[in-house]
Amino acid sequence: MASILYLHGFLSSPSSLKANQTRAYLLQHFPDTTFICPELSNSPAELEAQLQALLKAHPDLLTGGLKVIGSSMGGYLATWLTEQYGGRAVLINPAVTPFELLKDYLGEHENPYTNKRFVLSEDDIGHIRGFYQPQLSHPECYKVLLQTGDETLDYRQAVEHYSGADVYIEEGGDHSFVNYEAHLDGIMAFLNSAKATQS
Hints:
Elements: E1 3-7, H1 17-29, E2 34-36, H2 44-57, E3 67-71, H3 73-85, E4 88-92, H4 98-101, E5 107-110, E6 117-120, H5 122-129, E7 142-147, H6 155-161, E8 166-170, H7 184-192
Parallel strand pairs: 1-2, 1-3, 3-4, 4-7, 7-8
Antiparallel strand pairs: 5-6
Protein name: Esterase YqiA
InterPro entries: AB_hydrolase_fold, UPF0227/Esterase_YqiA
Pfam families: UPF0227 (PF05728)
């Protein structure tokens, strides 16, 4: 049975709008596909172990090549996973260098979905930097959906970083990626097209 991994962004959760839209779409159109959407830790130091444990708990994720959808910070983590394990990834307004952006977010936060409070520290920024992939081994294995109206990230940074990938740029919109559900047919076509490249 095929499985798809969805990774949400910073201060988001498995109950975010895009995660719910993806879940509902797969249930209707790909009922035999398992949708795996973990609640990612608010502690960057725990993320790598959490992702490794997730793959160990769901070995079917790597059967035939990883298929992952990542939004914002989730796109950053999806890139790291794809470079480590091969496969195909669809990235929604991905964060390219979140360790730079999050320097302005040091201190206490509350996740609006889970109401969990946590503190983002300088050490956390270092852990986030550890996931950075300066070069993509197989850019053709990425589909990147960007909206120019993203108020959080400069979409042009992703255009440059994911050069050689299937990059789609839509005028307007915002960081949440407006009208995401209209792209789910294309997202699934990409994830299911050709055998995923193995690293």
